[in-house]
């Protein structure tokens, strides 16, 4: 069961929809937003829930880090100098067990992957911060 970090507050305004998520990653925690109206989980946090239209009542929870591959692709070129993975590498859309979709890298050969395959988040210290990587179970 995910642990709420902050309770829902109707007066709370969504100012930074990804800042707490990014800070959580630095601390080795995967944070996602939950709607206080219907429980829908999303990332980034949205000012209006995409399921029930509740306004401004989302709060951050810690994800279990478990999910399933929803879609994936193998890149054969590194497109950014800040991106440290050597090509080829796998980028995937993962459906977390809480329901949110998130992009991430998968530490497994492309040929071994299948849609709906279980994956688990882990954090790797890279010398320039923590990096979120998903591994197959």
TrEMBL record:
Signal peptide: none annotated. Gene3D superfamilies: 6.10.30.10. Residues 60-124 form the ChsH2 C-terminal OB-fold domain. Residues 23-52 form the ChsH2 rubredoxin-like zinc ribbon domain. It holds the Pfam family OB_ChsH2_C. This is DUF35 domain-containing protein.
